[in-house]
Amino acid sequence: MAQSKKSNTRKKNSTRKTNTSDRSRSRNQSQRQSEPMDVAIKSEVILIALFALCVFLFLCNFGMIGVMGNAISGVMFGIFGLTAYLIPVFLFMVIAFAMINSGSVIATRKIIAAVCLYLIISMMCELFTKAPQEAVSYDFKGIYEACSTNRNGGGILGGSFAYLAYHFLGLIGTILSLLVIAIIALIVITDKSFMKGVKSGSRKVYERSREDAAYRRERAQKRREEAEELRKRREEERRLQEEQKEDQKILRMDKKVTGVMMDTSLTTERHEETVARERDDIHEINLSDFEEQLERPHTYIEEEDVPEDTYQKPVVTQPEVTQSAAASQVITHEAPSDGFDFSKIRINGAVGEQQSDDISEIVSPYAEEEMPTSVKSRPVAKLPKEDPFGIPLTTDPQPEPARSPASGMTSGVSSAGADRLSQAQTVSAQNRASGQTSQGMTQGSPGNQPVRPREYQFPPISLLTKSMGKENKNAGNELRETAQRLQQTLQTFGVRVTITDISQGPAVTRYELQPEQGVKVSKIVGLADDIKLNLAATDIRIEAPIPGKAAIGIEVPNKENTAVGLRELLETDEFKKFPSNIAFAVGKDIAGRVVVSDIAKMPHMLIAGATGSGKSVCINTLIMSILYKADPSDVKLIMVDPKVVELSVYNGIPHLMIPVVTDPKKASAALQWGVAEMTDRYQRFADFNVRDLKGYNKKVEDMVVRGDPQAPKKMPQIVIIVDELADLMMVSPGEVEESICRLAQLARAAGIHLIIATQRPSVDVITGLIKANMPSRIAFSVSSGVDSRTILDMNGAEKLLGKGDMLFYPQGYTKPIRVQGAFVSDKEVSDVVEFLKNQQLGNIYDSDIQQKMESMGAASGDGAGSPGGGNERDQYFVDAAQFIIEKDKASIGMLQRVFKIGFNRAARIMDQLCEAGVVGEEEGTKPRKVLMSQEQFEQYIEECL
After folding, report:
1. Rg, Å, the chain Cα set
2. Under 8 Å between Cβ of 564 and 588
3. Do 655 and 478 form a contact (C-beta atoms < 8 A)?
4. Are residues 821 and 873 in the same domain?
5. Helices (H) and strands (E) in the chain, counts
6. Do residues 537 and 631 both lie within one domain?
7. What is the pLDDT of residues 557-584, one digit of tens each?
8. At residue 944, what are phi and psi to the nearest 5 degrees?
9. How many domains does the chain have?
10. pLDDT of 122-170, one tens digit each?
């Protein structure tokens, strides 16, 4: 019994303990779960109640809560003054900020600073009411009632502190103290340094003002240059008018007189004078006209009085801009950056170590050439010559030197008059002494000067339009931003590089990267698409590595392209002083430097590109460069234009040997004439024991100097330009390919150079033989990498931008360089051609060459087996007939085997034999019957062939 009671008691106690522990455990868990919830709810409730209170107080200030609201508003205005409108918002923001940042020392500091700033605003409101200034003593009740009634001032808080400050510091001291405390409070609240902000702001203002000043100076310099150019143009026009007046007084002999005339003076009738100017022969000059001219004082056009410093080049004092040895700008702005300092990147630095003797490059940012003087042919005296761009070479009368390519301009009026006078006196004296007739004088009188043809006058540079490039003042900053984005993109993929240089060209900017040790070049090349995506570029080209540099070049298209005008290139000293007569102004490279090449050192060039890529403009640029550089006696052109409309505009210029060839069949004859001319020149070289054209012409000059009567004429250089090779290869591929290969292999020393262009750079047009013998190439934009490999033997041309963007690959270069080709418009070409045609140099075409080409074309047509049908016989016609008569069997297959010709040609020969009656008609699969004997065929040859 006792044990059972004890066990029951133990069970009850254990049950009671279990229930107690369960209740304590659940109570602890509920407390732990409710405590965080209570704090969050409490904070949220406080914020909501505070927001509602602030909205209520805000509405009370505007009288929207009734009588109670007006009373509360009066109390608020009495305590806070005009800032009572802000106190609800300020109160909510301060309490919310304190609750969010509970326990933070920085938050407490900022709250105190905000309260001080609010109190300063209240004091300023009180000072504006002038109550402290007018108060005799401190009146607590008066301040409250005035602020509550008038709803202005600073209230009790602001008014009390304002009164104390004004009483002890005065008005100025109070305002200064309030400003200092307000600035300190703002610094504490914003955590921004006031001095640093003032410094950065002043630096920006200073930089902007300096850039604006530099921009204004550049604009002023441009305006001065334009004014100077206009002045020179007007001066040139006035000079030309004076020359025309002088020319009108020059009389020429127009009538041929038989018999003896003692007085050979010409009359001054107007119609004789007008007709005489159209001819160019030996004539007599009336000395009275020149005596009157010499007695008259000559009027010279004086230059305008311009201060000396007007034409000085602008010098902008900018410490971040320096000038390198290559005349390119190196900008070193100091821009804060994490890691790499992008301000030290050189922009348009000295690049282009890879150069060849046949290519010269130059940049002159302040190059300003004089306006070229227009030319006019002088029929009497050979006047002092000038540079074709207006720079006089000599002004003193002296024996005439050998003609230079840069000659041809006329000089001043005074020297021209003296030359005319001296020659007129000589001619007149000789005529009176000899008593010969006019006809006899021109034919054989030893005392008279021989008839000289008109001199070639170089076209003035003013016929070409001056390109106006756009300026971008923020170009340096944009380039650095792109460089930084490029570096960050590569770092994203784990490639660490250093950007060492930036070269900005007319259409493309190249960023030079130097990878860190251990970074593979192929890894950067493989990220081309990712770089293009991050830079938002239309296309990029990676040159890895840059020849001659330990760097990789990434070429990115510019946002705004700059056109390169041909005039801009022709005005440079590099083109003017280029020694070759066939200099070619190619364009500008990536660094913005002028590229001038020598066709003689190429010596043959292949140009290829898709339609619209700039191929025809490049050919026009090449031709115009020759027209501005070479005399027709030194350089001759042969142009082949199967498209008819591209080069036909040049018909009539004095450099052409024959009219522009537009018939593809005649084009083959033109190339064959080039081969024949090359062979003939080499034969002459062998006769004179010289090796090349230069040595031959030097020997001819020596013979002329010695007075050798058997001295031959000098040989000109010949440039053969073919605008579309694909069309010629379709008409007569065998003859065209053979002629091109022979010329390309041997014609360099003979002074004959080939320029071949095509818009279809496929292997059936540019065959292996042609490509192997054309060492210099220009590739414009193409559609695929296959075409690029056909032109350059490497990819790259498919990534070009078009519109003159090219890869220039002359002989001697390990890799092509990227160049923006020069642009010349159709109007400029027409103006230059029209100027050359108006010189009227006589018959400029060589009839002998035309006849030889026609005979070669006919022979080529016969050799091709009468491709055009007609009645012409194949060259194997007689041999095939004799062979068939001898074998007494006629079949097309037998002709193919014996004469090693194709089926079509053999079938045409068989049809011709059938028409002649040698064989009969075809009889299905049976052989044709032989109808003639040997004697009958010989009789047929005598009668019909």
Report:
1. 47
2. yes
3. no
4. no
5. 30, 17
6. no
7. 888 888 889 999 999 988 998 999 899 9
8. -105, -25
9. 4
10. 888 888 888 888 777 888 888 888 888 888 888 888 888 888 888 888 8
pLDDT at 711 > cutoff 50? yes
User: Cα separations (Å) of 891 from 669, 885, 922, 923?
Assistant: 33, 12, 9, 11
Which CATH number do you get for residue 703? 3.40.50.300
| Tokens describing residue 689 | 């024991």
Q: What gap in Å lies between CA 442 and CA 449, rounded to an integer?
A: 8
d(CA 634, CA 581): 7
CATH number at residue 900: 1.10.10.10
Is there a domain that residue 491 lies in? yes
| Residue at token pair 């409710």 | 34
User: Do residue 738 and residue 806 come from a single domain?
Assistant: yes
Q: Among the three residues 192, 209, 226, which one is the final residue of a domain in this structure?
A: 192
Say if residue 933 is exposed, middle or buried (CB neighbours under 10 Å; 0-12, 13-18, 19+). Answer: exposed
- The angle subtended at Cα 886 by Cα 881 and Cα 887, nearest 5°, is 100
Asked if residues 125 and 81 have their Cβ atoms less than 8 Å apart, the reply is yes
| 179 Cβ contact partners less than 8 Å away, ≥ 6 residues apart | none
**Which ranges in 398-437 belong to alpha helices (H)?**
413-434
Contacts with 823 (C-beta within 8 Å, 6 or more apart), sequence order? 467, 563, 564, 565, 566, 617, 621, 804
Degrees, nearest 5: CA angle 557-560-561: 75
Q: Which structural domain, as residue segments, surrounds residue 336?
A: 319-350+475-562
Beta-carbon contacts of 62 under 8 Å, excluding residues fewer than 6 positions away, are none
Mean pLDDT over 534-546 rounds to 86
User: What average pLDDT does range 616-629 have in this prediction?
Assistant: 93
Question: 494: domain CATH number?
Answer: 3.30.980.40
Tell me what pLDDT residue 21 has. Answer: 58
Give the separation between CA 257 and CA 91, rounded to whole angstroms: 120
